[in-house]
Amino acid sequence: MLVAGFMLLARITGFLREIVIAQIGGASQQSDVVIVFLTFPDMMISLLLGSGLMAALVPSFRNQPGAAAVALLVRAGLLIGAVFGLLAVFLALFSGETLGIVAPGWPDDLIAASESLFRITLIALPITALSGVTVAFLNSSERFTFGAIGTLIFNSCLIASLLIFAKLSPVVAVVIGVLGGAGLRLLVQLMASRRFLEKPDFAVPYDRTGLLRRFAGSFGFFSILALLPPLARAYASLVEPGALSMFNYAYKLMELPMAIIVTAIVTVLLPRLSGHVRDGQADLAAHNLGIALRVVGILLLGVAISTAFQAEAVVRLVFYGAPFTPEQFRDLGMIVSLGFIGVPFQGLVLLYGTAFVSYERTAALVLASLLMVSVMGGAGLILLNIWGVKGVMAAYVASQVAGAALLTVWLLRFTGRQPFTIALAKPLVSILLPAAACLTLSWIFRATEFWGLPALLLSAGVFFAVHIGTDPNLIKAITNRRTT
User: Fold this and answer.
1) Is the pTM of this model over 0.70?
2) Residue 243 lies in a domain
3) Taking CA atoms, which of 21, 138, 316, 385 is between 20 and 30 Å from 292?
4) What is the pLDDT of residues 308-339, one digit of tens each?
């Protein structure tokens, strides 16, 4: 719960960050530039390392004695810091071409005007990569909060920079915020690691083959997951100025339940599930996985149904006062509504990724990632020309549905029915009945034009009230540290 609390604070500041950007630039060419600069460093880390780094390093740190774990931390930090330092230099030399790939719809004069500040932003690449290694080390010692605290620090620095320097230039403000936030985040995480540091013992061997196998298997999967949002933003840039921002605002709204629910559970589940598998406790691993699947599925389903019906009201509330036109508010509401349809499937994909890595069945993840990027790439090109940014979001949702379906089939093959028996217990009264009640109430609210936050809270409240009334174990599963 503490992890979820810090992640909630981190996402709240993330929302404030998006609101500040929207208040400054709305959905315009200027806001598109700000968002590209803001997201590029983390995007590159996610593409090349991402959760694959966490999935590979956490079990390796956990399986090593203290001095050997510190030695592995030093090795990983030096290697990854050097690689991303060289990458930053390479991208700086080809900054125009890089921006043309990230935002192919930008005109040449906009790319030329953005290159110099973009090169400065690239300094954040090796800093952010080192932060990922440090968080993996902390997570292996079950200090899960520092990943969320790092995000909180980064967002707070960015908001402060935007508020202070936006009048000078919003793009300059973002560059200052990105560099300051990345540096302060790493400093805090290194200070938190000091209590676990001791003289490194480089003589103790470590399972290099296992580490590389976990990283290679999860690399493709988690990198593709990280590729999907920037690919969607690249497609959106082809629509019109501001379309990239519209997709990003919708995606950030979708991230809130994902961060609070899925990321918190995955962060805690990975080291524990890996430990159960390593110790041969197959039944306990399947049991905990089943509980995690049920919690994620139930919570995201209730949030998704209620939000999909009230998306425009949510958008108008969150971005109140932003310089959007009425048409932009309507379009953004539709994009958010489409996005939330896919939220439960996206949550399952992330949870399945953790499970497959823990069971060291990573080949399936590579195949699933290929399917997902193929669906996003193909459907995105088709639906972009039919439905604009809404078509881009529909393609993104389709990729999540395809990935969740394929991984469900494969998980059944090697874990059997036990996780799904737990996850789908009492399906009629604890899943379908709450969903039907929520859908019915949402339709009534829509027909009577009862909009806004009260309608959303009431419909979501009915879903969870009916579920808990038929199966009170949800609260126990959320609060029980030993099972989640």
Assistant:
1) yes
2) no
3) 138
4) 999 999 999 889 889 999 999 999 999 999 99
